Amino acid sequence: MNTPIDISEESGVRYLHFGSDWVQGAMRLRKPDALELEYTREMMAGLLLRPSPWPARVLLIGLGAGSLAKFVHRYLPAARTTVVEIAPEVHGVARQYFRLPDEDERLRVVIGDGAAFVEHDENQWDLIAVDGFDRNARAGALASLAFYEACRRRLAADGLLAVNMFGELRGFKTQLQRLNKAFDGRVLALPPCPSGNVVAFAAAGEAGEVGAELLHERAAALEAGTGLKLGPSLKRLKKSGLLAEGVLRL
User: Fold this and answer.
1) How many of the other CB atoms lie within 10 Å of CB of 39?
2) Which pLDDT does position 168 carry in this prediction?
Protein backbone atom coordinates (compact mmCIF):
# COMPACT_ATOMS: atom_id res chain seq x y z
CA MET A 1 0.00 0.00 0.00
CA ASN A 2 1.38 3.40 -1.00
CA THR A 3 2.14 6.02 1.63
CA PRO A 4 -0.35 8.94 1.37
CA ILE A 5 1.70 12.09 0.86
CA ASP A 6 0.68 15.73 1.21
CA ILE A 7 2.82 18.84 0.86
CA SER A 8 2.04 22.23 2.34
CA GLU A 9 3.82 25.58 2.43
CA GLU A 10 3.68 28.42 4.91
CA SER A 11 5.93 31.44 5.50
CA GLY A 12 8.65 30.18 3.18
CA VAL A 13 8.74 26.66 4.62
CA ARG A 14 7.63 23.53 2.75
CA TYR A 15 6.25 20.69 4.88
CA LEU A 16 5.85 16.97 4.27
CA HIS A 17 2.84 15.05 5.65
CA PHE A 18 1.90 11.39 5.40
CA GLY A 19 -1.84 11.80 4.97
CA SER A 20 -2.32 13.60 8.30
CA ASP A 21 -1.47 16.84 10.09
CA TRP A 22 1.71 15.33 11.58
CA VAL A 23 4.75 17.06 10.11
CA GLN A 24 7.15 14.43 8.73
CA GLY A 25 9.72 16.87 7.37
CA ALA A 26 10.32 20.49 6.48
CA MET A 27 12.56 22.64 4.30
CA ARG A 28 13.04 26.39 4.31
CA LEU A 29 12.99 27.26 0.63
CA ARG A 30 15.81 29.80 0.92
CA LYS A 31 17.99 27.37 2.93
CA PRO A 32 17.24 23.91 1.52
CA ASP A 33 20.19 22.17 3.23
CA ALA A 34 19.58 23.65 6.68
CA LEU A 35 17.81 21.68 9.43
CA GLU A 36 14.53 23.54 9.82
CA LEU A 37 12.89 21.45 12.57
CA GLU A 38 14.47 21.60 16.01
CA TYR A 39 14.41 17.84 16.57
CA THR A 40 16.39 17.29 13.35
CA ARG A 41 19.02 19.70 14.65
CA GLU A 42 19.18 17.75 17.90
CA MET A 43 19.62 14.49 16.01
CA MET A 44 22.98 15.92 14.91
CA ALA A 45 23.97 16.79 18.49
CA GLY A 46 26.29 13.79 18.45
CA LEU A 47 28.69 16.18 16.70
CA LEU A 48 29.11 17.83 20.12
CA LEU A 49 30.02 14.52 21.74
CA ARG A 50 32.74 13.40 19.33
CA PRO A 51 35.85 15.19 18.01
CA SER A 52 35.96 16.17 14.34
CA PRO A 53 36.17 14.61 11.79
CA TRP A 54 33.29 12.41 12.90
CA PRO A 55 31.30 10.59 11.61
CA ALA A 56 32.83 8.86 8.58
CA ARG A 57 30.02 6.32 8.00
CA VAL A 58 26.40 7.36 8.53
CA LEU A 59 23.27 5.22 8.37
CA LEU A 60 19.92 7.02 8.26
CA ILE A 61 16.76 4.99 8.83
CA GLY A 62 13.84 6.93 7.37
CA LEU A 63 14.27 9.54 4.65
CA GLY A 64 11.26 11.83 5.07
CA ALA A 65 12.01 15.15 3.44
CA GLY A 66 15.71 14.26 3.34
CA SER A 67 16.75 16.88 5.88
CA LEU A 68 19.45 14.86 7.65
CA ALA A 69 20.75 13.37 4.40
CA LYS A 70 21.08 16.82 2.81
CA PHE A 71 22.77 18.32 5.86
CA VAL A 72 25.37 15.53 6.09
CA HIS A 73 25.98 15.57 2.35
CA ARG A 74 26.49 19.34 2.30
CA TYR A 75 28.32 20.02 5.53
CA LEU A 76 30.15 16.81 6.50
CA PRO A 77 32.29 16.10 3.43
CA ALA A 78 34.20 13.28 5.13
CA ALA A 79 31.00 11.28 5.69
CA ARG A 80 29.53 8.60 3.47
CA THR A 81 25.81 8.15 4.00
CA THR A 82 23.39 5.30 3.38
CA VAL A 83 19.68 6.05 3.73
CA VAL A 84 17.12 3.27 4.11
CA GLU A 85 13.55 4.26 3.22
CA ILE A 86 10.70 1.79 3.07
CA ALA A 87 8.48 3.78 0.69
CA PRO A 88 9.80 4.47 -2.83
CA GLU A 89 7.27 7.28 -3.27
CA VAL A 90 8.85 9.13 -0.33
CA HIS A 91 12.19 8.98 -2.11
CA GLY A 92 10.60 10.45 -5.23
CA VAL A 93 8.98 13.28 -3.29
CA ALA A 94 12.23 14.08 -1.45
CA ARG A 95 13.99 14.47 -4.79
CA GLN A 96 11.23 16.39 -6.56
CA TYR A 97 10.03 18.72 -3.81
CA PHE A 98 12.78 18.81 -1.15
CA ARG A 99 15.94 18.98 -3.27
CA LEU A 100 17.49 15.70 -2.20
CA PRO A 101 20.70 15.46 -4.26
CA ASP A 102 21.36 12.67 -6.72
CA GLU A 103 23.12 9.60 -5.39
CA ASP A 104 26.89 9.64 -5.67
CA GLU A 105 29.90 8.06 -3.95
CA ARG A 106 28.90 9.81 -0.69
CA LEU A 107 25.12 9.25 -0.75
CA ARG A 108 23.26 6.00 -1.32
CA VAL A 109 19.51 5.41 -0.95
CA VAL A 110 18.21 1.89 -0.32
CA ILE A 111 14.50 1.20 -0.69
CA GLY A 112 13.69 -1.37 1.96
CA ASP A 113 12.72 -2.12 5.55
CA GLY A 114 15.03 -0.34 7.99
CA ALA A 115 14.73 -2.95 10.74
CA ALA A 116 15.56 -5.78 8.33
CA PHE A 117 18.46 -3.82 6.86
CA VAL A 118 20.09 -3.29 10.25
CA GLU A 119 19.53 -6.93 11.21
CA HIS A 120 21.33 -8.27 8.13
CA ASP A 121 23.82 -5.49 7.38
CA GLU A 122 27.46 -6.32 8.16
CA ASN A 123 28.91 -2.81 8.20
CA GLN A 124 30.00 -0.81 11.21
CA TRP A 125 28.58 2.70 11.45
CA ASP A 126 29.78 5.77 13.33
CA LEU A 127 26.30 7.27 13.45
CA ILE A 128 22.95 5.52 13.08
CA ALA A 129 20.07 8.00 13.08
CA VAL A 130 16.53 6.62 13.28
CA ASP A 131 13.60 8.80 12.29
CA GLY A 132 10.89 6.56 10.91
CA PHE A 133 7.16 6.95 11.55
CA ASP A 134 3.95 6.03 9.78
CA ARG A 135 0.99 8.36 9.18
CA ASN A 136 -0.11 7.90 12.82
CA ALA A 137 3.36 8.76 14.18
CA ARG A 138 4.04 5.12 15.10
CA ALA A 139 7.55 3.70 14.78
CA GLY A 140 6.59 0.00 14.73
CA ALA A 141 9.58 -2.36 14.53
CA LEU A 142 11.92 0.64 14.69
CA ALA A 143 10.99 0.97 18.37
CA SER A 144 11.55 -2.69 19.29
CA LEU A 145 14.17 -4.17 21.61
CA ALA A 146 15.41 -6.45 18.81
CA PHE A 147 16.00 -3.45 16.55
CA TYR A 148 17.91 -1.53 19.21
CA GLU A 149 20.04 -4.60 19.94
CA ALA A 150 20.80 -4.91 16.23
CA CYS A 151 21.78 -1.23 16.11
CA ARG A 152 24.20 -1.79 18.97
CA ARG A 153 25.88 -4.62 17.05
CA ARG A 154 26.31 -2.34 14.03
CA LEU A 155 27.95 0.58 15.85
CA ALA A 156 31.67 1.26 15.54
CA ALA A 157 33.76 1.63 18.70
CA ASP A 158 33.00 5.35 18.96
CA GLY A 159 29.59 5.01 17.36
CA LEU A 160 26.36 6.65 18.46
CA LEU A 161 22.73 5.79 17.89
CA ALA A 162 20.37 8.77 17.63
CA VAL A 163 16.64 8.07 17.88
CA ASN A 164 13.77 10.47 17.37
CA MET A 165 10.91 9.60 19.73
CA PHE A 166 7.58 11.31 20.17
CA GLY A 167 7.25 11.94 23.88
CA GLU A 168 3.54 12.77 23.75
CA LEU A 169 2.50 9.33 22.53
CA ARG A 170 1.61 6.34 24.65
CA GLY A 171 4.43 3.83 24.65
CA PHE A 172 7.19 6.43 24.72
CA LYS A 173 8.41 5.36 28.16
CA THR A 174 8.39 1.72 27.07
CA GLN A 175 10.41 2.63 24.01
CA LEU A 176 12.98 4.42 26.15
CA GLN A 177 13.14 1.43 28.51
CA ARG A 178 13.89 -0.85 25.56
CA LEU A 179 16.67 1.45 24.42
CA ASN A 180 18.19 1.44 27.91
CA LYS A 181 17.99 -2.34 28.08
CA ALA A 182 19.66 -2.80 24.70
CA PHE A 183 22.50 -0.44 25.61
CA ASP A 184 22.89 -1.32 29.32
CA GLY A 185 21.79 2.13 30.38
CA ARG A 186 24.27 4.00 28.17
CA VAL A 187 21.51 6.33 27.02
CA LEU A 188 21.14 10.10 27.07
CA ALA A 189 17.61 11.40 26.44
CA LEU A 190 17.59 15.10 25.72
CA PRO A 191 14.83 17.25 27.24
CA PRO A 192 11.71 17.32 25.04
CA CYS A 193 11.59 19.81 22.18
CA PRO A 194 8.64 22.22 22.14
CA SER A 195 7.16 19.97 19.43
CA GLY A 196 7.09 17.03 21.85
CA ASN A 197 9.93 15.17 20.14
CA VAL A 198 12.56 13.57 22.35
CA VAL A 199 15.93 12.76 20.83
CA ALA A 200 17.87 10.03 22.61
CA PHE A 201 21.48 8.98 22.09
CA ALA A 202 22.93 5.58 22.94
CA ALA A 203 26.54 4.40 22.94
CA ALA A 204 28.18 1.00 23.19
CA GLY A 205 31.90 1.82 23.28
CA GLU A 206 33.96 3.09 26.17
CA ALA A 207 32.09 5.46 28.46
CA GLY A 208 33.14 9.07 28.09
CA GLU A 209 32.31 12.57 29.15
CA VAL A 210 32.51 16.01 27.57
CA GLY A 211 32.89 19.18 29.62
CA ALA A 212 30.41 22.02 29.27
CA GLU A 213 33.08 24.39 28.00
CA LEU A 214 34.07 22.02 25.19
CA LEU A 215 30.40 21.46 24.31
CA HIS A 216 29.93 25.20 23.88
CA GLU A 217 33.16 25.50 21.86
CA ARG A 218 32.05 22.76 19.49
CA ALA A 219 28.56 24.26 19.24
CA ALA A 220 30.02 27.64 18.28
CA ALA A 221 32.31 26.07 15.68
CA LEU A 222 29.41 24.08 14.21
CA GLU A 223 27.21 27.15 13.95
CA ALA A 224 30.00 29.12 12.28
CA GLY A 225 30.78 26.34 9.81
CA THR A 226 27.37 24.91 9.02
CA GLY A 227 24.70 27.20 10.47
CA LEU A 228 23.61 24.42 12.84
CA LYS A 229 22.36 26.01 16.04
CA LEU A 230 22.60 23.78 19.09
CA GLY A 231 22.82 26.54 21.68
CA PRO A 232 19.13 26.18 22.64
CA SER A 233 19.66 22.44 23.16
CA LEU A 234 22.58 23.10 25.50
CA LYS A 235 20.47 25.59 27.46
CA ARG A 236 17.73 22.97 27.93
CA LEU A 237 20.35 20.40 28.95
CA LYS A 238 21.68 22.73 31.62
CA LYS A 239 18.18 23.57 32.84
CA SER A 240 17.29 19.86 33.06
CA GLY A 241 20.23 19.11 35.35
CA LEU A 242 22.07 16.87 32.89
CA LEU A 243 24.99 19.33 32.97
CA ALA A 244 24.79 19.87 36.72
CA GLU A 245 28.38 18.75 37.32
CA GLY A 246 29.72 20.63 34.33
CA VAL A 247 30.07 17.51 32.19
CA LEU A 248 27.86 15.43 29.89
CA ARG A 249 28.33 11.70 30.28
CA LEU A 250 27.43 8.95 27.84
Assistant:
1) 22
2) 55
CB contact at 8 A, 46 and 160: yes
Taking only the tens place, the pLDDT of each residue in 18-74 is 887 778 899 999 999 999 999 999 999 999 999 999 999 999 999 999 999 999 999
**What element of type H or E holds 70?**
helix 67-75
pLDDT (0 to 100) of residue 99: 97
Of 104, 113, 121, 131, catalytic: 131
What residue type is 174 in one-letter code?
Answer: T
Q: Which of 234, 72, 34, 49 is nearest to 159 (CA)?
A: 49
The letter for the amino acid at 119 is E
Q: Is 134 a catalytic residue?
A: no
The order of strands in the sheet holding 6-10 is 6-10, 13-17, 25-28
> What would the mean pLDDT of 174-190 be, rounded to a whole number?
95
Q: CA-to-CA distance for 90 and 5, rounded, in angstroms? A: 8
- The C-alpha angle 215, 179, 147, rounded to 5 degrees, equals 120
Q: Is the torsion defined by CA of 67, 227, 236, 200 positive or negative?
A: positive
pLDDT band, very low/low/confident/very high, at 2 (cuts 50, 70, 90): confident
Q: Check if the beta carbon of residue 70 is closer than 8 Å to that of residue 32.
A: yes
Under a CB-based contact definition with an 8 Å cutoff, are residues 193 and 232 in contact? Answer: no
Q: Amino acid letter at 55?
A: P
Decide: 84 and 61 in contact? Cβ < 8 Å: yes
- Summarize pLDDT for 229-241 with one digit per residue, the tens: 999 999 988 888 8
Three-state secondary structure readout of 11-30: CCEEEEECCCCCCCEEEECC
